[in-house]
């Protein structure tokens, strides 16, 4: 195994907006992962979220030097309004060049405002200040191979001290969530009934692939999950699954064989939404 010198990779399930305002096991883990990243002197964060996709063949990288934040429902503005975003334009341009070199129709978007899929996680990871961060869009065709290739194209950034993060969801179907406790009582963790069978089944399959396959098998496994019999129940739309493909690209090279994902925290919300938090590799491994 030669993961030497490579930073870890995270696939985080950001869940509902209330994951910003309410304490949870997942939130505690996000903070821990952020503390470790800072203690190990990461150069910056490169993230793919779940709320920004480009049309046709395009992929974009955020190059707005002063992005604002789209508002977050059900969270008091004091939890996010004053948090200072830290767009890393130099790395954004580097990402554009790396993507172009791999044949992508990539360009900067100097007008893009950041959305909670990325800054919710950043606030939780880095409450005392956002490290230089680059946001990469998805492509709205939601082709799994395309998104694996994006992760693979940016994988070399792991050798340069960047932390690559996908922010999406393991089980994330807004149409199948039980919203009533959140809408009526602001309680996103009520879980009045157990999660439904399809949610449990798909969540288990995600964990199995993440923790039991590595290298190119991980890429094939996460790609194949889109053909899982319960996939469409777990993901009514493909947007929250794409960051998993991005992550598989970033940590699914031949060189990553033997680096298995770990389920580090998990928080169920709204009965059927499973916010699994996965990490591959470690800074200890990177320093070895
Ligand atoms: Fe989301």
UniProtKB/TrEMBL annotation:
This is Extradiol ring-cleavage dioxygenase class III enzyme subunit B domain-containing protein. CDD domains: 45_DOPA_Dioxygenase. Coiled coil: none annotated. The lineage of its organism: Eukaryota, Fungi, Dikarya, Ascomycota, Pezizomycotina. It comes from the Eukaryota. Pfam families: LigB. Residues 10-254 form the Extradiol ring-cleavage dioxygenase class III enzyme subunit B domain. Its cofactor is Zn(2+). InterPro entries: Extradiol_dOase_DODA, Xdiol_dOase_suB. Belongs to the DODA-type extradiol aromatic ring-opening dioxygenase family. One of its GO terms (molecular function) is zinc ion binding. Keywords: Metal-binding, Oxidoreductase, Zinc.
């Amino acid at each position: 195994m030669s993961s030497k010198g490579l930073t870890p990779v995270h696939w985080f399930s950001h869940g509902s907006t209330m994951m910003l305002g309410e304490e949870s096991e997942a939130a505690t883990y996000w903070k821990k992962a952020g503390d470790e990243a800072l203690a190990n002197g990461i150069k910056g964060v490169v993230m793919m979220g779940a709320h920004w996709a480009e049309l046709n063949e395009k992929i974009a990288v955020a190059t707005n030097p002063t992005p604002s934040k789209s508002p977050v429902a059900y969270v008091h503005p004091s939890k996010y309004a004053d948090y200072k975003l830290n767009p890393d334009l130099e790395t954004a341009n580097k990402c554009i060049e790396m993507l172009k070199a791999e044949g992508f129709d990539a360009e900067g978007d100097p007008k893009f405002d950041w959305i909670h899929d990325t800054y919710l996680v950043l606030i939780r990871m880095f409450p005392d200040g956002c490290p230089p961060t680059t946001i990469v869009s998805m492509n709205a065709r939601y082709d799994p191979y395309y998104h694996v290739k994006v992760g693979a194209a940016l994988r070399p950034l792991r050798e340069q001290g960047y932390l690559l993060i996908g922010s999406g969801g393991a089980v994330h179907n807004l149409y199948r969530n039980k919203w009533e406790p959140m809408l009526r009582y602001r309680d996103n963790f009520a879980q009045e009934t157990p999660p439904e069978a399809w949610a449990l089944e798909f969540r288990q399959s995600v964990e199995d692939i993440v923790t039991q396959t590595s290298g190119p098998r991980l890429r094939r496994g996460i790609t194949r999950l889109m053909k899982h019999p319960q996939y469409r129940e777990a993901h009514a739309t493909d947007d929250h699954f794409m960051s998993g493909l991005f992550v598989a690209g970033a940590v699914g090279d031949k060189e990553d064989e033997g680096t298995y994902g770990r389920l580090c925290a998990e928080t169920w919300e709204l009965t059927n939404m499973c916010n699994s938090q996965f990490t591959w590799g470690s800074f200890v491994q990177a320093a070895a």
